[in-house]
Write a structure and sequence with these properties.
Distance between the termini of chain A: 81 Å
Largest sheet of chain B: 7 strands, parallel
Number of strands of chain B: 8
Number of helices of chain B: 12
Radius of gyration of chain A: 25 Å
Oligomer: heterodimer
Order of helices and strands of chain B: HHHEHEEEHEHEHEHEHHHH
Number of helices of chain A: 26
CATH architecture of the largest domain in chain B: 3-Layer(aba) Sandwich
CATH architecture of the largest domain in chain A: Alpha-Beta Barrel
Number of domains of chain B: 2
Helix content of chain B: 40-55%
CATH superfamily of the largest domain in chain A: Methylmalonyl-CoA mutase
CATH topology of the largest domain in chain A: TIM Barrel
Shape of chain A: globular
Number of domains of chain A: 2
Strand order of the largest sheet of chain A: 1-10-9-8-7
Largest interface: A-B, 46 and 38 residues
Chain lengths: ~675, ~325
Amino acid sequence: MNQSNPETNRDRPWVFRTYSGHSSARASNELYRTNLAKGQTGLSVAFDLPTQTGYDSDHPLARGEVGKVGVPISHIEDMATLFEEIPLDRMNTSMTINATAGWLLGLYVAVAERSGVSPDALKGTTQNDVIKEYLSRGTYVFPPEPSMRLISDMVAYTVEAIPNWNPTNICSYHLQEAGATPVQEIAYAIANAIAVLDAVRARGDIEEDSFPRVVGRISFFLNAGIRFVDEVSKVRAMAELWDEVTRERYGVEDPVLRRFRYGVQVNSLGLTEAQPENNVIRIVLEALGVTLSKRARCRALQLPAWNEALGLPRPWDQQWSLRIQQVLAYETDLLEHEDLFDGSHVIEARTTELVKEARSELDKVLDMGGAVMAVENAYMKQSMVESQTSRTRAIESGDLTVVGVNAYTESEDSPLTADRDLSILQVDESAERDQIQRLETFRKQRNAKEVEAALQGLRDGLSNGSNVMPGSIRAAKAGVTTGEWTDTLRSIFGEYRAPTGVSTRSTSLSGEETTRIRDRVHSIAEELGRPLKLLVGKPGLDGHSNGAEQIAVMARDVGMEVVYEGIRLTPGEIVQSALDEGVHAIGLSVLSGSHELLALDVLERLQNSGAGRVPVVVGGIIPDADAQRLRDAGVQRVYTPKDFDLTRIMGEIVDVVAEAHAGA
Amino acid sequence: MRRLLGRDRSAVPEALNLTDDRRSEQRARALAMLDELEREAAFPGPPRVGVTGAPGAGKSTLLDAIVRQLRQRGETVGIAAIDPSSQVSGGALLGDRVRVRSGSGDPGVFIRSMAARDQLGGLADSTRAVVDVMAAVFDRVFVETVGVGQSEADVADLVDDLLFVAQPGAGDTLQFMKAGVLELPDLFVVNKSDLGAVAQRTASELSAGLGFGQHGDGEPREVLLASARDGQGITSVVDSLDALHSRQLTSGALGERRRRNRETFVLATLERRYGSFGIESVGGADALRQRIQRREAASAYGLVDELGQVIEAELAAAQK
């Protein structure tokens, strides 16, 4: 028997993190220090949507979003507060930041230097993957070309100045969330990494000898789903394909620099609102998928909390998830063994199959001109919307079992959710006001001349093709704000809107229920005098558009005329569009938690434009108490993640249109 | 009606809903409104421009750049955007078009998306009505269609000028030439000129393929290069549209085209309604055209009504 000795052979565990941040830099700093004291070994910063999309906390688009899905960072003092009493030279910090990644890294470097830490001592990751923002997550700002330039600027800068930094974390995470199959996930993530590396190579300012080091700094960010045998194989397949690409395409000889390095956030969107205690089991199984195989084990792991489908998790909920990691790493014998699957016929066969299929899909994208082209022509997006559509329909039909949702739904009362509104975190409503006050004070105290000079320097640098980083660090030190930095870039690069991918060919739906709904859609069209027209709107800064896209596709397939204009619209734009387009109903999707403010704003504007009768339905992660308030204010229906039956939702939309029409 | 004639934007949505309404009472009201609108409209009124091209050529982005340019010049713009319907469900996904922010939220821009409701990709009956309503209120009206084929010919019959957006890369240009679709457009724009040589090449191939003197006035049709991405050439596209329009106005070609479009609309509507048998019952298409030409003061909508009654009477007589 080859029983390993835990004292000598135990592998070092992955970095334990929890994706967190909320309300304010001060509150988040306290949370981070508490989490570190509990044995967390790295930080994962969640920024709020205004920070991610480059607006100061007092910008009109930021209203209701400040401190909601993460911490608001408007300037250097916010950043300094966020890391107060945390030794940056010993910390491994991951920042989920993309379009404004250069700016947030600039602030991080400026804060480090202020506390006497040299940049080359910093360790961590900026997510900085804009391609997947176009495809799924939605916090992009600039068009593809300048976005790729910003990413390659950061790669070029960090490889010399912050050698232990991962400047970009290529995300297949959000591709899975958007519906990608394992093959699509592997192929598109690698296509994306190739787009970044090709862009860096095309710059011409990096020595050929240094290029392997650049390749070595590319890391990935993966999702781990519930089909954990497939997940083990997926990760091994990605490692294999990455090794091949780095060797053949980029000629990297050192195997260390060809390693497939990745972090993981276990699937959050697959967590269920029904019987949420089952999510703990899901999280454990999903964590196994990315830790079991030593050769393809993650470098860092973040586990969601069991109640994320209900609302924001409390510190206790996050602690429970951290404890899962600690039990897995410290109590079990997992870290004492070599790779468990080497020589497994099943895993190896599945891995080979995935590599083969992914390689052919990757070639397809590369033949098209690469990942950027496949974003602009919507190829990748459409493929994923199609995959997602078949997935949601399989859940609806029961072909795909989700325990507690479409099977085994009977349940005793859960003591964990006896009071639903107490089983999630309540965000302090004064957070936004306080943040804006601090911002105003900061603006008054800074040196206006230095700010203007720094912004001019940034502008000049961008125009003459210099690296964006030095100018950004200088701007951070001078007291420039997040909104000012981004506006400067916007004025040069312009803004972008990605294809929604929903204009795919119609899938033929069958089934009694669907046919019945389609007949009702057609018969109400007779009463209305014209086809039922629905506006699907995503107000606010939240870019998670999968839900809205699925609703839009389904509504089209039951015979409605659907107007869907994509993400990040203001309530004013949505209402103008609803009026101009002459729609019969409006469906709003908000996942950032600011549903109340945004939905009420839409209702009020409709009322003021004399269209108060147009019915509004809202979908999102909406706690019961909020849902009641929305209904009281006039929202006709509220949908949450437990409403997976899109056909039923379609039927109800026809109902509310019929009611509104009868009352007219 | 008063509000439309007073160019009140807020009256447009309701008027458009009415033109789309199939209930008999609403239909009668819509026809009365359109009849009056057409008879009250001063000539020439706002330019009516069709925008067409293959999927992926960047029509929406180019149109968006043009609209932004027009807004800077202070013009208001109405856009009728037409998408195909699903043949299975009759449903349609609309609005996935204006990719860059400019229109929404700006009251100077009005967008109505519509489904092309017949299965061949032809335009909905009410498209002309939408254009007429928009022309009453906005300084310029665009009709954007997806793809080519029947819808392109239909759009040409609705507008003063048809702008064709071509994509760099020669393959599809050849296909269009084979299909004969290149005879219809009045202006060509090769988009994505930032791609450089390949765009240049497409532009020269197009110019060579077009021949000369296609306009009534003997002027060659222009092929322009533009890039919606970096804004290059957008000003010349707008200038060319303006120049084209004023040349057509001076030469009388504009009036001629509007008359022809009016005839085509009346004939096509009657034919859809009564079939070729109905048309033959009053002496055939040429005879009908002459009748339409004689009734210069009547609106297209009034004529459909009037001539429809004549055809119905003939058909009823033939039955006996």
